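Example A, followed by Example B.
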Amino acid sequence: LKWPSWFKSPPLSRLGSFPRPGYTLEPAMAGLNCCGAGNGDSIEPMLQEEKNAPTMTAAPPPTCLQSFVTSCCCLTIQDRTSFGHEMIIQDTSPEPSLFQRLFACQCGPKPRINSGLEKETKIKGLAGVTLQDGTHATAGSLQTLKWASWDPNTREAILPVFGGWYGDTGIWTEPVVCHWCFLMNLARCANYRYKFTFSEDFNHATIDIQGNPLVFCCVCIPCCPAWWSVPRGCVAYDMVQTSDSKNGTEWDRRSRACGACGGEFKHSYYLQEVITAENKKGQYYNEMAAKAPEQMMITY
């Protein structure tokens, strides 16, 4: 008896109810779902906190009005479950929007250059996708420093936040709120970016806000770099690794206003790694389901 030519029998590794010869299940594992075991994945008991963790489900599609407005503003709305691939695995920028084509003269996807930040053991968590955990205006936003410009000699990382002439799009999200449609494009016009300067022990970093302020005078020169930094005496950001951080997986992001007048740094939010630089679940992955919006806006 021969099988028809169009029939292919499933591999034995998928026949979960018929263990392969010489293969036994540990007693503690017998009641667990073994999906994926045939692909070489290890089977580990599910921890109690993982059982109680919020589930990550796909978000409903954006409304017609949301899609229309964001498309007109050269932005896109994406599900939070897609950002592991979009930010970490994809090594080219997305297909450029009309804004990128006209303003940045980008006619097609361009290669992303890996910063190599994951090679710095003490801060490699920043090379993954991080979550802003707090109650501030941009709470739940996701971002990555994997494609930043990194200089290991000066310990400086420069990240154009929303793209523009010098940066990559698709690496920083914001909530689906109307005013961000304007602010994200204004930041692109100004080549808005952050400069992170780390201490020698990599436990602290100052964050300088840089851009081209001439855009406020209606002088929009796409190739004009971010030549101006906000004085730290006016507004200053920094971040410090927390005691729970494992190689840069959690930071206390602090802000200070009017430092020249005696202002002190105050806690703004926690920056937590939710997806590693290898696109695996990070230390705070479960926080993404609990605190990140199901849908977020991003440049392209």
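Example B, a separate protein, is given below in the same form.
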Amino acid sequence: IVAEYGLFRRDSDCNVQVNSEGEVSCCCRKCQLWKAFCKGSNPEGIPQYEVFTKEYVQFLAKYVRGRAVLYKKKPLLLLEVGAGDGRLSWYLSRELRALDADAQAPCYSEEHLSQPSVSVRTSDNGVLGLHVSSGTGSIVQILDYQAALQQCSPHLVISSWQPMGEDWTAAIRATPSVKEYIMIGEVDEGICGHPWYTWGVHAEACMSSSDTDDNGDNHETCCGLQNQIPAWTTSPAFMEDGFERCELPELSALQVCRTDERWLSTRHSHTVSFRRLHVGAAASPIGD
């Protein structure tokens, strides 16, 4: 994908323009092809928020399997909320099965080899209907994130591109079984989740590569969300709830998303883990 569309090349042949409102864009043919791909002109025929590459999913599978070993769960119950068409869970499950079948991969005792190391559940509220025409949509349970958390009682939760201005993480942390949750997408003052309640960041200036989300909301909306923060709040909600924030740079380095540009070297999507304290080691290298 990176090579095909020439992403992250500051020496690209783009003709970057700044309009009267300060919005930066390029209308060259290659940039238009990339934007069209993200909007649905791709083999799956669906919008792409996060473009999940083979390399990314393989590393994520190694990380998740390592957490199953760390937490001594067999299987580890993993729930993806807001999964859309179910692509991530579909391919992640496939990679996890491959790791379980690999004799070189870390495993438990022989009597447990018949059990998967990780059991993946997939949920979405179905409002956008992305699961209907997708080849991976059959695995998606039509449940909102709160109902899915209640029914599944997961150990680990994944949320990719949580809607802008919304925060699902409070409900995730309030689920007693959850030991860790992984957020995928733009972080902090970006267009995923709430700057403070999700990421623990007071955004003084909401600046991102993307000026609007798919609903047309701009980053003035994001900045306005700061007014919702109680005056007495001093610590991020995840810290108050006994979680710590851990960046996963090895995974972030492999990410590609719809707000990435051919003419910028920066990757705008990241993978961040939030871990409940005192349930295991604070860090686990990918692949462990």
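On Example B: The chain has nine helices and nine strands.
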